[in-house]
């Protein structure tokens, strides 16, 4: 009986330690030498398979203009953290789309950059399989407002809006609205709007 109690207590302590939110200082130690980093508020999420982890918006003030923001994934169960390479740039927004403790949380992450009068961004629905981010849906937007209206070059661009919806049986869905515009200058652009609803599936 004593052995059973000890085993149960050990399992409880292990689960509690896995779920405990690490401090910003602890996450910074797990990251190692990545240069100057300023961490935001951690967001709890579940990886595919049930492991608890934390997604942290981050600023990198010493990096170039297209690399000043991003995300850190921290896994207390492993005592490790990494900077996500394929997201961020000039964006570190996080939206939690679904809360499935077994299949994993779906989150919306951003990536953006600018240069030579143009801006480009991508909004991605991501689920983490261990360290690997699995992109379930992505939508692009951008404009050339800083490089048009000269020598007859048309101004054009688009904006994307993602709105979470509740699907049947709790299956996550997403309303995707795209606003496109084009014209001789940004003040006289013709505007077109399209919308669709997509159903998101958990990967096997």
């Amino acid at each position: 009986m004593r052995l059973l109690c000890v085993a149960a207590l050990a399992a409880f302590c292990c689960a509690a330690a896995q779920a405990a939110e690490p401090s910003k200082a602890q996450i910074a130690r797990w990251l190692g030498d990545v240069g100057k980093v300023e961490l935001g508020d951690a967001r709890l999420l579940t990886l595919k398979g049930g492991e608890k982890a934390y997604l942290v918006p981050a600023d990198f003030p010493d990096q170039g203009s297209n690399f000043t923001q991003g995300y850190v994934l921290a896994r207390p169960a492993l005592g490790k953290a990494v900077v996500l390479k394929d997201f961020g740039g000039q964006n570190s927004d996080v939206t939690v789309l679904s809360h499935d403790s077994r299949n994993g949380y779906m989150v919306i992450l951003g990536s953006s950059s600018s240069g030579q009068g143009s801006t480009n961004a991508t909004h991605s629905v991501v689920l983490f399989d261990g360290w690997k981010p699995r992109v379930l849906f992505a939508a692009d937007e951008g404009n050339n407002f800083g490089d048009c209206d000269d020598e007859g070059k048309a101004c054009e661009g688009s904006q994307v809006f993602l709105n979470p919806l509740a699907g049947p049986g709790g299956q996550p869905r997403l309303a995707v609205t795209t606003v496109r515009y084009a014209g001789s200058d940004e003040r006289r652009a013709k505007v077109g709007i399209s919308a669709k609803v997509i159903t998101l599936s958990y990967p096997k």
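DSSP finds two helices and 13 strands in the chain. Confidence is low (pLDDT under 50) at residues 1-17.
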